[in-house]
Design brief:
Chain lengths: 178, 178, 178
């Protein structure tokens, strides 16, 4: 017969597992929203006081302001040209009601200057180009309505230091146990 | 002492967790099969009446027909040239014995026209090109032999509308709760 | 009231689930470590007698030797130029205290020869190139200090046979059940 302590421990383990799977899905839902301009999604997953920190580039504060960006004519022009956000496997640090996620992102578009190449039974294509590669840190908080984004920090992975700082944060736990 | 209801709830949670992990693995096993021409895999993971819907391009109906495609000389020519399917983080919607997965896919090959570039301690390479970027929707069903693909819908992410329709479907739940 | 057998079965299921999530995170932590030269991470996640098998290219035996590679001037030159390891969705085979993971990896850098392209509200960029695409097989073992890498085998996905051998291994279970 399980004791109360055993039940609580089981519940804690299950909750941590479900949290990780929910967080994977939250990160996975970002590209579809960005590539369709789904402002209703962005409003739903950012905390009301959430922040999208893009460094020197325009980001936003508050879920309404952040969501408004994907409705701009500029963003819709990018979508019409064939914008694709491509997300790699994210690294998750879970700590009770908080979590941090480190992820890599590619911004892809059809290559306007590409030479047509035929690939056997995959047709001819001018190819796609990687416009940007970025490191992301997502700081999340548990709420009554599920996990919400408190802060997303994005820095271009182009050899400059800020992106490496984001990546280093992911591994701090390893550094301190040496 | 757990009641029957508590046991059933625990079982439901465990099963949903195991389902999500099984589905992640199912999606992850697609690129290795496509890039080796493993028709035995394709037959095993599609339902007998499964459909691969590629829109205007040749797809297939029935697991045997879909599997036959990866044995064609055309597909093997693509494999010999260095074909790589590259899968991003998939978004999973689980609903009992059904599931839908939305995923991004890149089709990569060595770049026949690339200029050789040397990358410190990573050797010299003419690089790879992204031939195609595609949105996929996988509709899955639980069977006695595990999760099977009932329908895979693939549309090129090139600025045209059908791919965006696939991506939008993933976020319908968010749209309707506004 | 759960029997001892039921408790043990529950524990086995929970452990397998937690193992899979821990392994996903282990694979996800590789790119941040490679792109920051975090040798302390590499030492921590490889077994003491771990092997990094790169075929004809310099790999390493032992976690100290493998970790030393990311501290070399050559690797730091690559990092300074904007190195990004980009990891796709991995396929996991879990078997008790052992596991094998099959994953795809892209090595990305800013394109030194790229023509500047402006992408609406994403700024101007000369783009990134894919220097290499590789198939990886990670053989893992459970230890008192968590999952450790016993052997990582990396082969370039360029049309040559060794990479396909790695990918085929992932699907052996399907092949033998035909």
């Amino acid at each position: 017969m399980p004791t109360d302590a055993a039940s609580r421990m089981l519940e804690d383990r299950l909750r941590a597992i479900e949290d990780r799977l929910a967080i994977l899905n939250l990160i996975a839902s970002h590209p579809p929203s960005a590539d369709t301009g789904a402002d209703y999604y962005t409003r739903a997953v950012y905390a009301e006081d959430g922040v999208f920190d893009r460094g020197p580039h325009a980001g936003g504060t508050g879920n309404a302001a952040i969501a408004a960006v994907v409705k701009t004519p500029e963003h819709h022009a990018a979508i019409a040209s064939g914008l694709a956000h491509f997300c790699g496997l994210p690294y998750i640090e879970l700590d009770g009601d908080r979590a941090a996620v480190t992820s890599y992102l590619q911004i892809l578009t059809p290559d306007p200057n590409g030479a047509p190449v035929e690939l056997s039974n995959h047709g001819t294509s001018k190819g796609f180009r990687i416009h940007r590669v970025a490191a992301n840190r997502w700081e999340l908080a548990r709420t009554a309505a599920g996990w919400k984004i408190k802060r997303r920090t994005l820095r271009p992975l182009d050899g400059s230091e800020p992106a490496r700082q984001i990546l280093r944060q992911a591994l701090e736990a390893y550094e301190t146990t040496e």
